[in-house]
Backbone:
């Protein structure tokens, strides 16, 4: 996991991060490393400024889709539930594969991964 940047906006501490994951999870076990092709997934971690150094549990918000990036918050009330959630959690807002700042996979890549693919 790579920290890209961190900053404050009114009422929020935000970390922009990315993580490399296998393009194809077949034969891979999460947490054991991998070789071969990979993609980068972007995610944002949002915390109340007063809880930046606290060991809070994670709450992952999976954006409905398809095709939308995770919310881009301007303040704690810009998305109704965030204001309460950051009192108790580090809120993780991922850009799922192919959305926002995460890598996409095109049809040629998918065909190559299919059994008997080119």
Residues:
């Amino acid at each position: 996991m790579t920290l890209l940047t961190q900053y404050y906006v009114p009422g929020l501490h935000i970390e922009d991060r990315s993580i490399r994951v296998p393009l194809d999870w077949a034969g891979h076990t999460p947490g054991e490393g991998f070789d071969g092709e990979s993609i980068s997934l972007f995610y944002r971690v949002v915390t109340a400024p007063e809880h930046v150094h606290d060991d809070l549990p994670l709450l992952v918000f999976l954006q409905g889709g398809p095709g939308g990036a995770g919310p881009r918050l301007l303040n704690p009330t810009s998305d109704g539930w965030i204001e309460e959630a950051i009192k108790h959690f580090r809120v993780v807002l991922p850009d799922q594969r192919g959305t926002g700042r995460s890598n996409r996979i095109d049809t040629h890549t998918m065909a190559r991964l299919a059994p008997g693919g080119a």
About this structure: The chain has a mean pLDDT of 83. Residues 107-113 form the longest helix (7 residues). The radius of gyration is 17 Å. Residues 17 and 98 are 16 Å apart (CA to CA).
